[in-house]
Amino acid sequence: MTHAENEDQIGNRNGNVGAFLIGSILGGLTAAAAMLLYAPQSGAETQELLRSKADELRMEAEKTFQNRRQAAEESIGTRLSSVAGRLEEVATTLNQQAADMKDTS
Question: Is the pTM higher than 0.70?
């Protein structure tokens, strides 16, 4: 298996984890909203609970977004370092081949 294939599998796993987390959050919020709507409370209390849950959802979504963003930035940094290293290897090889050709002519 090549390095690129390994990175693709890791990317797919990260995507699956992200999808699972988003699904879990949305499922939990749907259940919480249903519970609140069927709870025997006054309209003002229900509105306050809904507002509170919406704030929690916003904070959780921001946290998830920041975590995914950080993971993406780290992945990009790793890949750029890998590409830079490979480019240095290619440049060194080309310079060596040019020097060898110059010596033989």
Answer: no
What is the pLDDT confidence band of residue 12, given thresholds at 50, 70 and 90?
low
Contacts of 50 (CB under 8 A, 6+ apart): 33, 36
Smallest CA-to-CA distance from 21 within 52, 74, 61 is with 61
Extract the tokens encoding 5: 């294939």
What type of residue sits at position 91? A
Cβ neighbors of 53 (< 8 A, separation 6 or more) are 29, 32, 33, 36
* Start-end of H helices in the chain: 3-38, 43-104
- What tens digit of pLDDT does each residue of 71-103 get? 999 999 999 999 999 999 999 999 999 888 888
Which residues are CB-contacts of 7 (< 8 A; sequence separation ≥ 6)? 79
CA quadruple 12, 13, 18, 21: dihedral positive or negative? positive
